[in-house]
Design a protein that fits this description.
Layout (H helix, E strand, L loop, with lengths): L10 H5 L2 H10 L1 H16 L8 H8 L11 E2 L16 H11 L18 H10 L5 E5 L2 H13 L4 E5 L5 E3 L2 E2 H6 L4 E5 L7 H7 L4 E7 L15 H4 L6 E6 L15 H6 L4 E5 L10 E5 L1 H9 L3 H4 L3 H12 L4 H7 L5 H14 L5 E8 L9 E10 L2 H6 L5 E2 L1 E3 L2 E5 L8 H12 L2
Parallel strand pairs: 1-13, 3-6, 3-7, 7-8, 8-9
Antiparallel strand pairs: 2-10, 4-5, 9-10, 11-12, 12-15, 14-15
Bound molecules: pyridoxal-5'-phosphate.
Length: 432
């Protein structure tokens, strides 16, 4: 008699609610229908009454047609790979929005003719590293290495590389395998911890395409170690390709051990590759700098077309290079002295709401494959461990880290203007 299934309104009847009609126009039919079907299911199981189905579906609607949501990074890891690496600067976000529609990415508005693709971004890149004879942009640093290997050694010639630099980048992908899949032959030299100039010199022959220096950006080897720098290799008579990784364009005072593009070129590298979304603080991209003729060869290689970046990347990259300092480099040089004060203030406000919050000294890290040994003095709000999961489930999700049974919200990676958002998120998580 009281079977709740008999009172479940039909899907099309629910979808006729004006709020859901509007939602279909905003995020599309499939996502709205899924919210409705899920709400009907909850009513069938008795979790909600049938008359709440519309309300429940409206509440469950995703805000966007994409599942990617803005997240607050309170991990203390400046470049967090799982959180999309570098957040873009406001200038870059603006540029992406402007380029997202119809845009002049390959069109000269003055002449009405086809124009070189992404000229603005390439000019900005060249201006940022004036000593580079040529510059090019591909999808990411892995693509940059792939293109270099294909163009210079894909015919089976040899790439000489130190055994200490056979790096796994992440997610199981390894640079030696990436190079080998182009048809190039790897010629490993030296030992894991030590490599000498002679090791390289002995390995070079008429089949050598280039010597590759890969910055071990996500691990440290310490103790009895020796590596050979670009300047020591420059006299070997073959091109030196340097993968500097992090995308520092010039030396950084806080990161003395992190290689940079300008220095690698000055030391004699023929080509330098780097990521756009690490310490440069821009979009995912592979940046290539070097001798004009080599860069030209890369640009005209058939595979270049498969590795080329889209208008959104070009827009974000140009604005990153020309605009104000993006968040990642800004966080790196930002004052660390006020972090503990912010943590104290936040914690005391939260204690007033009855939450067990205390300020603690912590260490932040660059992360994301850069400056692996560098620890940055930082401060966090320490909360009971259960907050880690509760905050992730909030809106916006706040991602902290669990350390010794405490949930730490590290403020190095939180803009001071967002402290209020963090406080509100913690209060909301406390009552869930
Ligand atoms: C991060 C990194 C890569 C991979 O770069 P992606 O842009 O993620 O493809 C390659 N080499 C080094 C040294 C790196 O640090």
């Amino acid at each position: 008699m009281t079977d709740p299934r008999r009172h479940i309104p039909r899907t099309d009847a629910v979808l006729a609610d004006p709020r859901l009609v509007k939602a279909v126009a905003r995020i599309g039919y499939p996502l709205v229908k899924k919210a409705v079907v899920d709400a009907q299911q909850r009513a069938r199981t008795g979790e909600i009454p049938p008359e709440s189905i519309v309300e429940a579906a409206v509440d469950a609607l995703p805000r966007h047609a994409s599942g990617l949501r803005p997240v607050l990074n309170a991990t203390g890891i400046l470049v967090h790979t799982n959180l999309g690496r570098a957040p873009l600067s406001a200038a870059a976000v603006d540029a992406v929005a402007a380029a997202a529609g119809v845009t002049n990415v390959e069109f000269d508005l003055r002449t009405g003719q086809r124009a070189p693709r992404g000229r603005g971004a390439l000019e900005a890149l060249a201006a940022a590293v004036p000593t580079a004879g040529g510059v090019h942009v591909v999808n990411n640093n892995a693509a940059a290495l792939l293109l270099v290997a294909l163009a210079l050694a894909g015919d089976g010639r040899e790439i000489v590389i130190s055994r200490g630099e056979l790096v796994e980048i992440g997610d199981g992908f390894r640079i030696p395998e990436l190079l080998a899949c182009t048809g190039a032959k790897l010629r490993e030299v030296g030992a894991t911890n030590r490599c000498r100039p002679d090791d390289y010199a002995d390995a070079i022959n008429e089949r050598t395409a280039f010597v590759l220096k890969v910055h071990p950006s996500n691990f440290l080897v310490s103790g009895f170690t020796r590596e050979v720098g670009v300047s020591e290799l420059a006299g070997l008579g073959v091109p030196i390709v340097a993968d500097v990784g992090s995308g520092l364009l010039r030396p950084h005072p806080l990161l003395p051990d992190e290689p940079d593009v300008a220095t690698a070129l000055a030391e004699g590298a023929a080509l330098v590759t780097a990521s756009g979304d690490k310490l440069l603080g821009g979009p995912q991209a592979g940046l290539l700098f070097g001798a004009a003729d080599l860069v030209h060869r890369l640009r005209r290689h058939p595979a270049a077309r498969a590795l080329r970046v889209d208008k959104l990347t070009l827009a974000a990259l140009e604005a990153t290079l020309r605009g104000p300092l993006p968040p990642v480099p800004a966080m790196l040089i930002g004052s660390r002295s006020d972090l503990f004060g912010r943590a104290e203030k936040l914690a005391s406000e939260l204690r007033e709401s009855g939450i067990s919050a205390v300020p603690v000294q912590t260490e932040a890290a660059v992360g994301g494959g850069g400056a692996p040994g560098v620890r940055l003095p930082s401060a966090a709000v320490s909360l009971p461990a259960r907050f880690t999961a509760a905050l992730r489930a909030g809106e916006p999700p706040v991602v902290g880290r669990t350390d010794k049974d405490r949930c730490l919200l590290d403020l190095s990676t939180v803009d001071a203007a967002q402290d209020k958002v963090v406080a509100a998120a913690v209060r909301a998580a406390a009552v869930t």
